[in-house]
Amino acid sequence: MLDYRIRSFIAVWEEKSFTLAAQKLCLTQSAVSQHIKSLEERFGKKLFHFQGRELTLTAAGERLYRYAVVAQADGNKTVELIIREEKIPPLRIGATRTIGAYLLPDLLGTYLRRYPDADPSVTVENTRDLLEKLQRGLLDFVLIEGIFNREEYSTQTILQDAFIPLCGSKNPLAQEVVSIQKLLKERLFIREVGSGSRAILENALANYNLTIQDFYKIMELGNIEAIKDLVAQNLGIAFLYKQSVLRELKQKRLAQIRVPGFSIFHDYSFVTLKNSQYKDLYQNFFRISQGPLDKVSTP
Known about the structure:
Elements: H1 4-15, H2 18-25, H3 29-43, E1 48-51, E2 54-57, H4 59-84, E3 92-95, H5 97-102, H6 104-114, E4 121-124, H7 127-135, E5 141-144, E6 153-168, H8 180-183, E7 187-190, H9 196-206, E8 217-220, H10 224-232, E9 237-241, H11 246-250, E10 254-256, E11 264-273, H12 279-288, H13 290-295
Parallel strand pairs: 3-4, 3-5, 7-8, 7-9
Antiparallel strand pairs: 1-2, 5-11, 6-9, 6-10, 6-11
Helix pairs in contact: 1-2, 1-3, 1-4, 2-3
C-alpha cells in the first residue's frame, strides 16, 4: 500500500546502506538509487548525505521518515485487518523484561477476560530493540520503562516505580546506611546494553560523576531472575525496579540498601507511533488495563 519509492527510502535508512537495502527488497542497487533520486526530485531536497562513509538523514529526510514509518505501520495493520476479518483486531504487544515479567501478565489477563476470542502476541525485549521494532511496524505498541525521546512518540504514563539499590538480606550492607562510593567496592550485576534499567542507572551515576566501570566487578545478565538470585546469594549488588522485587523483599531474600540522597523514580510508559490512525484501537488495551494498574503497589 505504501509507495514503492518510500519503501526503498525506509530500507536505505534502516539498513544504512543502498546495497543492503537493495538486498532486503530483492531489487538492484541501481533501482533503489533511482527511487531515492525520484523522491529527491519530487521534493526538491536531498534526503541523505554522507559524513565520511556514514549515511545520515537530512532535515527533509528526517521529516519524511517520521511520516513514512507511521504510514507503513498503518498500511500493514490495514492489510492485516482486511485479510483476517476478525471482530477483535489482533494486537502485537511489546514489553520490556521488567514489565513483561511483573506487570504484563495481569494486564493481559484482564484483556483476555474482556475479549476471550482475542489473539494478541507478545514480544519481550529491551527498550532499544522494542522501539526499533515499533518504528519498523513490527509492533503495534510497547510498554517500556527506559529512557527515550518522548517527543517522537505518543505516550501515556502507566505508573511510576522506584529504582532501588539491592543486596542480599544477610549482606552487612542491609543493616547500614552507606554512601554510593561504598557500593563501588561491590560486584555489580547489571542488565545488558540497551536495557532501560541500565540507562537509568548510568544517568543516576553520572550525577555523582561516576560510571558503571567504577564498580569493583561488573557482570551483565539479560535475565532479571538470575540477577535477583545472585544478589540473594550475597555475590554482589544490583539496582532494580521495586515492582520486580516485591516478593523477594517480603520474603527477606533481598534488602533495599539505604543510600542517602539516592532517590530515583521512573515512569512505565505506554508508547505508540505518533499520529497513527489506529491509536484509539491500541489505547483500548491501555484503558481496559486501568483496573489492575490501580491495584499495583506504587512507592
